[in-house]
Amino acid sequence: MPSTALSERAARAALAAHFPPHQVAAHLAHHSAEEVWQYGVDHDASGRLAQYKPHEELANAQLTCQFVIPSDDVWPAALADLGPDCPLGLWVRGHEQLPQLTARAVAVTGNRAATAEALTRTKAFATAVAEAGHTVTSTLAYGVDATAHRAAAQAGHATLAVLPRGLDRAHPHDHAQLLSSIPTSGGAVVSLFPPGTPASGATLRASAALLAALVRAVVLIEALDHAEAAMHTAETAADLNRPVLVPPPTSDVRADGNVRLLAEQRAVLVPDPAHALAELRAPPPRRAGPGRRAGHGHRKE
Description:
Elements: H1 8-18, H2 21-28, H3 33-42, H4 48-51, H5 54-61, E1 66-68, E2 90-93, H6 98-103, E3 105-109, H7 116-131, E4 135-138, H8 144-154, E5 160-163, H9 176-184, E6 188-191, H10 201-214, E7 217-220, H11 229-239, E8 244-246, H12 256-263, E9 268-269, H13 273-281
Parallel strand pairs: 3-4, 3-7, 4-5, 5-6, 7-8, 8-9
Antiparallel strand pairs: 1-2, 2-6
Helix pairs in contact: 1-3, 1-5, 7-8, 7-13, 10-11
């Protein structure tokens, strides 16, 4: 397809379907998305890109959700802090609410296999954060994250969900009602990935970085030190100069990630929701400089 016939939205969706943002960021700094896509098509020896139909793929995907791009009024400006990893676009349900939701977004996240104490804390912190006028933001995952969404909803407040998969279906499947209820009650659901994309280790890591960039702070209720998306969110947030707020860790091993972040002075101890709200009332921290790669700091693999 000639580049002159391709819209910026379709070109960005096509690029996002085939390249991580940092691979094309330098090209997009000097050329339009349409030109970058056409260059890719012309130099793809496999012919795979030439077979892709950007307008048709975008139209089909937008039957489920909208593809929002940086030139749209609703685009979250804070994503620029991701530098070359800034998304090429976002798939969104409830996109009209994005500016209001992201203006005061606070992540409440933690283990999927959470302890009973962690779930009790989640309800208390998420309710307090929502009632103070912040947007509880999480991932719909089992454990802490879904509990945070439900606690805010029960308090009568909209939430923002960041999913590591396409927005056409929920995972776990029994969260389908929760997924559909968020945009219909004034919230929004966001993904880096088009409908039909399953979750994987790569999508979990990318979504954790997106979550960290979208919020002004992270409340890390309880997290294992390794193999948890919540820890990647917290560490990326620290790299981006977002405060990471941590309740007093329990003796349970499932909070060893919290313990390490506190020991490294990359998190702030908040004994209760009132202390967390006091931290959130402080002026927003200085944003990370443009061009900084997120999520590549002190992460131990």
